[in-house]
Amino acid sequence: MKAMISKCMLGFPCRYDGKSKPLNDEKLNKLNENYELIPFCPEAFSLPTPRPAARFIGDKIIDINGVDKTKEFLKGANEALRICREENIKIFIGKEKSPSCGIKKTSAYINGCECKCDAPGLTSKILKENGIELISEWEI
């Protein structure tokens, strides 16, 4: 069975800071036993790497320079959905605390303070609304 996975968790340096957040070997082996992993980074699809960090402010995604990046994040989320439909992918394994890929937690500014909110990132939200099962890296 195919599963899309946040590309940074497979060691690709596509995060906002130009780094990766690879899974440990035990988790990666477990995933490889059960899934054909399809790596994708919705942020890197429409934004450069590295790029300014971004967080939710209300329903917008704003980078640390105050620039609205919602359109670019949405473009990446829609591309993830297109790939899932085209490749018959039914599962998405997401990187927590990402404004794109977080499953249980995402980054936000609330009342002028940065926090990790109990909410999915934009890509995860759109995939779930379209019938894709979400799996947090914390559940592996």
N- and C-termini, Cα separation? 16 Å
Q: Mean of the pLDDT scores?
A: 93
Helix content: 25-40%
Biggest sheet strand order reads 2-1-5-8
What structural class is derived from the secondary structure elements? alpha/beta
Overall outline: globular
Counted by DSSP, the helix tally is: 4
SSE succession: EHEHEEHEEEHE
**Sheet having the most strands:** 4 strands, parallel
Catalogue the unreliable spans.
none
How many E-type strands?
A: 8
Strand content: 25-35%
Radius of gyration: 14 Å
Plain-language structure description:
The chain has 140 residues and is an alpha/beta fold. It is built from 4 helices and 8 strands; from the N terminus they run βαβαββαβββαβ. The strands form 3 sheets. It has a 4-stranded parallel beta sheet, with helices on both faces. The chain has a two-stranded antiparallel sheet with strand order 3-4. Helix 3 packs across helix 4. The protein is globular and about 45 Å long.
Q: What would you say about this model in short?
A:
This protein has 140 residues and is α/β, with parallel strands linked by helices.
